[in-house]
Amino acid sequence: MTAEVTHVARRLLLGARCARCVGRAAAEAGSASGGAMAAAWQHPFLNVFRYFRVDEWKRSSKEGDVAVVTDKTLKSSVYRIRGSVCASNYIQLPRTSAQSLGLTGRFLYVLFRPLPAKHFVIHLDVSTEDGQVIRVSFSSLFKEFKSSATWLQFPFVFEARTSGGGVPLTGARWTCLQLDLRDILLVFLSRSYGHLRSVRLCASLLVRNLYTSDLSFDPTVSASDARRAKLLVTPVPREMAFPVPKGECWHDHYLHVRFPSDILKAPSEPAQKSGSPTAAVFSGPVPQLLPPPVAFSKPVEGRASPAVQTPTAVSAPRTGLGNGGPVVLMGDVGGPGGHSRDPAPPVEAAIVRTAVSGGRALADESAEVAAALEDAGSCKRFLPDPVLRLKGVIGFGGHSTKWALWTTDGTAVVYPCHAVIVVLHVSTGEQRFFLGHTDKVSALALDGSGLLLASAQAQSPSMVRLWGFQTGGCLSLFRSPMHTLCLLSFSSSGAVLCGVGKDQHGRTVVVAWGTDQVALGGEVAVLAKVHTDFDIQAFRVSFFDETRMASCGRGSVRLWRLRGGALRSCPVDLGEHCVLEFTDLAFAQAQEGDRAPSPCTLYVSSRGGHILEIDHQRMAVRCARRLLPARTPGGPLPQQPACGSGSPGPSPGISISSLSASPAACAVGSEDGRLRLWSLDLSTLLLEAEHEGPISSVCVSPDGLRVLSTTSSGHLGFLDIPSREYTVLAGSHTAPVLALSTERSRGQLATVSLDHTVRIWDLASLRQLYDFTSPKEAPCAVAFHPTWPAFFCGFSSGVLRSFDLENSKVLVEHECHQGAITGLVVTPDGNFLFSSCSRGSLIQYDCAVPRCRIIRVAVNTVCQDACPGPGALAVSRDSRLLAFVGPSKCAVTVMEATSLDELLRIDVSTLDVASSCLAWPMAICFGPSAPGHLLVSTSSKVMVLDTSSGRTVRELPSVRPETCSTLALSEDAHLLLMATGRAIKVWDYSTQAEPGCQLYIGHSEPVQAVAFTPDQRQVLSVGDAIFLWDVLTAPGRQVSALDHTHTGLLPLTLSTWASCGPLTPSSCLQGPECAQGPPSPGGCAVPSLCHVCPLTTAAKQLPLCPGPGQMEDVTSGLPRQQVPMPVQAPPAQLGICTRPPEGSDGMFSTSDEEGPCEQSCSPQRFRQAPGLPVLVEKETGGRGESGTTFQLKVLGELVVEVRPGGPDRQGSPSLGTARAQPPARPDSYKHFLARYKVSTLTKSTSLPPSGSEQLRLKAVVGYNGNGRANVIWRPDTGFFAYTCGRLVVVEDLHSGAQQHWLGHPEEISTLALSHASQVLASASCHGGTAAHCQIRIWAVPGGLCQQVISHHSSAVQALAFSPDDKLLATLGDYSDRTLALWSTATYDLVSCTRLPEPMHGVAFDPWSTGKLATVGTGAVAFWLLQQRGADVSLQVHQELVPEGVGATELTSLCHGAAPLLYCGSSSGQVCVWDTRTGRCFLSWEADDGEIGVLLCSGPRLVSGSNTRRLRLWAVGAVPELRRKGSSARSSSVFMEHELTLDGAVVSASFDSSMDMGVVGTTAGTLWYVSWAEGTSTRLVSGHRTKVNGVVFSPGESHCATCGEDGSVRVWSLASMELVVQFQVLNQSCLCLAWSPPSCGHPEQQQVTAGYSDGTLRVFSIPRTAMELKMHPHRAALTAIAFSTDGQIILSGDKDGLVAMSRPCPGITFRVLRDHRHAPITAIQSTSKQDGDLGVEGTDLWLAASGDQRVSVWASDWPRDRCELLDWLSFPAPATAEAPGLPSPSLAAFCPWDAALLVCVGLGAHKEVLFYSLRQKQVVEKIPLPSFAMSLSLSPGARLLAVGFAECMLRLMDCASGTAQDFAGHDDLVHLCRFAPSARLLFTAAHNEILVWEVVGH
């Protein structure tokens, strides 16, 4: 399903993106005042009201009650905005929406006070950097956070709280609302903040002023207090400050609200215990600003409530690995007396290895901060510690490939590899590392003495590290003032470090730091910082003066100087070279004795091939040269030697990317891949070396003998000048590495990457050996053959190739897979190869020979949704077993590797019952062969399973929130490797009890695969790069006393169970509840072992119903209400006795020999016909309440028990009165009501023989929103079905292909799927000649109808299968009122019970066998199925809804965790019942309207109502509330998400985790809902009402439909997906026409639609916009057509007028009134030869009207001539075909003879007429069984399609005279249309569209 939903969602997002472009120009115009000039006049802050002169109301506007008043607290004038309607009373800045404030300040300060007991709204329009306008709203009206792509809505709630037993605060106070606009967009929309566009302050509030600034002010501290206390804060300016009385605290009078809070700015961090994860940070204790909830990996105390805790202390600093990025330590604002401060510099998790011990982190000595891991649990450390040590890294670059430096001695090279800095010794190949960055390194610099190394990382805000180069330790870590830092340069002495980057507004920033004290333990000081508007591509500190620098960029070369704490620059006069784009620069110093250049020469290169020599002292260009391509093939590249000859010219030069100078030569690297070494005067080319890709950088060694070069393709090497040899130092993938494989004998490593390459590496030297490139397809998986010198590689195209390494060629290629290959594995013995693909197929190969061959192909075997990677397939070490994830997402299958016989299938989701979310396998790995273990990683843990039984042997907890993507177990089963996010986790697998683990970081991107080398001495990890780790295995290992056998299980004996406490039914039968809830004292301590205990079977045989003692507890709860007496209606005539016969046990029945039932109060006269139920009244003594119990019994069948209220119930109708009243439909939308249809009964049909059909149903467009619970989706099997009219549509969500199950004679009301997903039940309404409604049983695998059963008289309201699928319950509607049970073995009727009142839903209890529940008017009925020998009885007791709930009608139900039952009501209440006690213990208001859909799974509940709202509730606390009984409160139940759909929710189906599902609405739409993303995407959509027209594009790529709902919808014919929809409100679209191909270019296609108000609208399909609106008619348009050239539009209306309009000028130039007083039913236009048929003109068109008349016209539109050619008039038929719907008069030109008219509905007979325009008479008649309601002629073969009122479609072959009838429609077929290619036929009945494929034509 994922592929289809993603495709639809992308299309919708694409459309939304295009729509947002409309206002981009205005946004860009508004931001013109931003940039460099904006900061000048807005810094340090801006008084918005003063600058825009709000008091004058010229640049701002006001509306409603806005006045200036004096506030007593502030003692100043403020603006009061009040009014009952917030939207009508406001202040707006600027005055109009077309203007923009252009305020670029990051923070917006709003000084306001809400009016008491009133609501307020604040709207902000914020523009992003790309011009998108986002509306950000804050209001006390909002109840929850909502968001969209262009809108954020935050609730602002004021609550009264107490602190320390104080008095609750009353009234609202003046508040300083500080909004971080940058972080709001970044956190909630991932957008970059541009500027503030407008502000609207709405009632009701007082506002003092607005301020913007880039500084974070602390309003609680004044400037004098900050100076006096030397606080490191930014005090608030005086004009922004609130007055505070002397001696009092600021917090006692005012509030400070800062949003978003620091915890939202770093969501990856664990939430502090003292605060909510979603809280804004406040200085006061009252307000709450509630953003959306933040998802955490595991619930922690204090995270459940979204309420904001009062921050009374600064949060303790803590760090965490989080998502691997830098962990920012923020200090929250203190409480009273506290102070706020700016965010502290981020502190990074600068460790490579972290061992978790008792919840604390153990770090290396080189680590500055230890990373605190979440949920460390009880993991123990193990020895050796560390067990891994990084040995080598294969890779180069990451963020950029231009950083590579020589060390000062020229023996080693320093370069970055993503987040690791590598020092490579060029002669030995040894590597050492600088570890600590958590993101890719963006810049490097090494000082002249080789003592200090500076590095910056790319992640913003950019962090800079200073390292001691000799020791490898980090000396200093500081945050740069730049958003991103891209250039670093050290002075020769190392005392000055310069950096260049961009700030958050994109401006260039240059900073100089003093680093001379760092080596002595001092701090880094900022010497100077400057902003510049010039572009800087390169920046160097001169070697001769550390206060002088140079930079170059686009159009500028500047010389800098650091003096007096300031950086100043001046430009070099470039003259004619000022237009060049400069790329790099270098200082050069000549050797002694050389004439030139001077010691101050500066070389600058450009992208146009220029090299400028600049005199540094004179600041002028001394000489310019240009590098040009060779003039002759193979000749040398010419260099123009003359000074000044490098002027810009028309000929393109060779782009120079880098240069480096030494005292003897100048090295130049260019984008043509060549490294050139020139003499210093650039006159002689000394050496040239060609590379594979463009050169990124060059660097000459200090001795001038070697030139280091890097390329954009990831290669690093150097050119040795004396020997003229080039040496490659490092190669690299240029994209993430996906998979790896190692070879044992030759020590080789194979890797595949997204850069479309397969590379073979030597593990000893880490050098690349081979490189295979596939430009058109990406490699996905790789595997070495264990014995042959070959490897196998799978590609994204589904191709598998075998490569021979000795000959470097492809041995064999297989193309059997249809999708990308996701898994590849070879058995260790080398006999078999297995591959899997994304389409679910598994292929077995024989690879014992070099050219492998296919043995078996298994389709739909591997899970299609499984994560691709090395863990997709696994084989055991003895080559006997194969394991993979599939066929469902939650299943793991184990097969015999030789025969592919399935040995075991394990549902992983059922093994982790304690988890709050659905667990599915992520990666698999076999353990040692002897125990036979299979390791499976899930989203929360790693489980070890027994491969023979499937039981869980042991579990390894997860200490990180990321899922494990791959597993690797050492051969001795000592170490287990796990790849979790960007870290590697190593477990001491051999320790059974509390195994220890160690964590290793270093990768900057997620680790894709981990593996041991064949010798088990090293570990490989791949992701952003390839890491090689040494395994430091300890010489010996002591086994702990807690270690046990390989089984991992303690011996389980009866004594063990006895120690767990008594074995009760609740403890043994609850299962999941036992595991999820906290263990009770003395309870079972091993809940996961309950399923293997032999006592479980006996426990299941305990009685399921409560005993008498327990019944006493039931009635002591909520008060019981009275219910009406059971009302019985025919055919089951029941008598009622006042009391049971004496001596009876309260249960009375008669034998089969007794006579018919007579209504009497005497038990002796009580009679019943055989097989009918008997209703008997009995006493219910000892219950403590007055009431009666009615029992219903059928011998050998069921017993029904009903508990109504006592005789004091008011308004209870008598039995006789109820029988006399006709049944009334309940006032509930949940109750099904069949749509009214005007179709008639079928009279005669000519169904074609099987296999000879000329039509095949291809697709159905639409969903029946009138049904109830008529959507089925099973994510584990991918089964997706819904109904449309009489059809059951089974759709493949991957391909969109449909299956259609036909057979129902009427509209289908509901569906039900068995729990095993093998049987589907569908029920249709009563209608036609059938006495009962029909229930069909379908076999899901084959789609065949197995059984047809019927019992209910009117309609089936609900269907439900029992948990064991042995019973099917069917519930009749309000007119039927019967509950029937069917045996699924034979589908015989087991029982049928007449219900006293209509019921809306039925559901079996999934936790107890033989229990079900029904809901109806004010009560819940609990049913219990019992069997005594041959007699099967059904007991029922009915419990009323408590009076305090206020629910009159229960409309929906679903079971939650045992023993909970959730019921929805018509008033929007959700009631929770305890099914064991029959008591309602909790209720809450879940909606404003009726709840028709309820679904529950685990701790989540989904509710859908007729208010179009779909809500997700967190009900995890409800099982605990059950223990409180009637004292339970609903405050622990809260809403997580809410979506508003396009109609009332009638159907829903979600996965077990309730994260995603499919929802159906009454609008005829099926939505894909993702709670994780908070989105809803249309899966299936159709017209809500009748479809009136279907037309096709000329190329038949699209079709368009229109309906009475006012919409015009354009569909893609290939996929039948909705492309665009045009909606006109309050009008019906009655006709449609598509412009012909002759009207213009294909990109000018138009659709013209006619509406009920007489208007005509022209829509442009490419532009998705309405181009023209005309009003040519006063009455509704009924027919429309284009002329053959597309220049004229012919339209007819309901009054019989035909108008001729020209769309280009938009005028109607002629109106024909010949068909007055009769509606126009058809208009068609065709072409003819000029002069043909005796008239001039090339257009021939006709108009048919409802009075049996047809007019044919010949037109010459250029000459404005229109001549009547013929007029046909026929007598009207005597009777109409359908009541109230006369047969239409239809006519069309015959495609195979243009001189023929084909007419239906003309005349008194049921026939098709062929009228010849040449002979002026009818030449042929074809009889019809009924009057035709629609007509269409095939443009290809001589086929005729006719629709009838009997819901039948007839296809007539005019050539052979045969006819075939087709069923499937649910109403009269009022529309037929052949596609222009004649391959498709569209038919419509009401709102359903059926697409037929014409077979054989």
Task: Tell me about this structure.
The protein has 14 helices and 133 strands. With 1897 residues, the protein is mainly beta. The strands form 31 sheets. Strands 1, 3, 4, 6, 11, 13, 14 and 15 form an eight-stranded mixed β-sheet that branches. Strands 2, 5, 7, 8, 9, 10, 12 and 16 form an eight-stranded mixed β-sheet that branches. Strand 42 (674-679) and strand 43 form a beta hairpin. It is globular, with a radius of gyration of 40 Å. Residues 1-6, 8-38, 160-170, 266-288, 290-379, 592-597, 632-644 and 1034-1220 have low confidence and may be disordered.
Structure, briefly:
The protein is mainly beta and 1897 residues long.
Task: Throw out a few tags for this protein.
mainly beta, 14 helices, 1897 residues, eight-stranded mixed β-sheet
